Amino acid sequence: QVQLEESGGGLVQAGGSLRLSCAASGRPLSSYHMAWFRQPPGKEREFAAGMRRAGGPTYYSDSVKGRFTISRDNVKNTVYLQMNSLKPEDTAVYYCAARIPTSAPLAPLSDSTTYDNWGQGTQVTVSS
Fold first, then answer.
1. Of these four, 14, 69, 83, 115, which has the most CB atoms within 10 Å of its CB?
2. Does the pLDDT at position 55 exceed 80?
3. 62-76 b/e (C-beta count within 10 Å ≥ 16 → b)
4. What is the per-residue pLDDT across 95-105, written as a single tens digit (0 to 9) for each?
């Protein structure tokens, strides 16, 4: 199992930026598909961004496409979510998640049920 810890959340004004970090311990993140999910107040958890173990294309929900960027640094064993042009509707608890590629090889990265490893979450609040 890999342990994940998010950081970087906080309060920001609309139009501002934040960079979330997800630091891993126990296993190299290079072995996992990675994703960021978020849970707005009173709503279900939803997919925000994802990337496969071997690199290649990144995937985003329509609501964050063009504003958020997921990336990873295998040396630091950390995944990032750069969030620009933030909107009040981006307010949520943000979670990073890791999935072994062979555990659900055909499942989309957006399927939260396929992830076995989750961080504790970090709160992002965007004020209008």
1. 83
2. no
3. eebeeebebebeeee
4. 999 999 888 88
